[in-house]
Amino acid sequence: MNTSRTEPRRVIPQLSGAAVTGAVLAGGAVSFFSWVKQHSDQACEGTDGLCWTWWDWAVIPLTFSTALIVLITVYKQLDIRPRLAVIPPTILLAPFPLLAAQATAGWWTAAVAGGAWSCSLALAAWSRYRIPGITASAALLLASLVVLYH
Predict the structure, then answer these.
(1) What gap in Å lies between CA 75 and CA 110, rounded to an integer?
(2) How does pLDDT run across 67-95, given as a tens digit for each residue?
(3) Dihedral through CA 33, CA 37, CA 40, CA 46, nearest 10?
(4) Residue 100: how many CA atoms within 13 Å on its side-chain side?
(5) How far apart are CA 16 and CA 54, in angstroms?
(6) Which of 10, 32, 58, 101 could form a disulfide with 110 if both were Cys (CB 3.0 to 4.6 A apart)?
(7) DSSP codes, the chain
(8) Rg over CA atoms, the chain
(9) Is residue 3's pLDDT more than 70?
């Protein structure tokens, strides 16, 4: 846990790095899901029943494992700690803001939502900014659930 003496003086570079990483991962995930959908439609166009391709089965595990590896690597370089408390909610809850943003305006809003989501959860890593970080994350999650289930 970070104490006041070990907290970094400037968190803007770390938060900017987390936001850029989240935006890139979100944009990549949206593009990958779109590519898998097109590939599946082409492979299954002559089939009347259910049709599953290898990519349909692998899209979620590949996306989550790629995001996990990238976040671990980038957060280690940015010195965002504790990674165990920040990375799992970033990955596991990220589909809600990303789906809500993509449903409203497309892939670019999903990238912006991914950046905001990653940045707000990274902000919660420092005890001084924990309340604003969790509040921003909760507001994003609540807004996305309202958009998705309204």
Answers:
(1) 21
(2) 999 999 999 999 988 888 889 999 999 99
(3) 180
(4) 18
(5) 36
(6) 101
(7) ---TTTS-S--HHHHHHHHHHHHHHHHHHHHHHHHHHHHHHHHTTT-SS----HHHHHHHHHHHHHHHHHHHHHHHHHT---HHHHHHHHHHHTHHHHHHHHHHH-HHHHHHHHHHHHHHHHHTTSGGGHHHHHHHHHHHHHHHHHHHH-
(8) 17
(9) no
Q: To 5 degrees, how large is the angle CA 80–CA 26–CA 44?
A: 145
Q: What is the C-alpha to C-alpha distance for residues 131 and 59, in angstroms, rounded to an integer? A: 34
Q: Could you give the CA distance from residue 115 to residue 118 in angstroms, rounded to a whole number?
A: 5
Alpha-carbon distance values, 110 to 14, 66, 82, 115 (Å): 21, 17, 26, 9
Question: Sign of the CA dihedral 37, 38, 43, 46?
Answer: positive
Percent of the chain past pLDDT 70, that is, above it, reads: 94
Instruction: Please tell me the distance from the alpha carbon of residue 26 to that of residue 32, in angstroms, as a whole number.
Output: 10
Q: Quick count: other Cβ atoms within 10 Å of Cβ 140?
A: 21
Cα gap 14→34, rounded to integer Å: 30
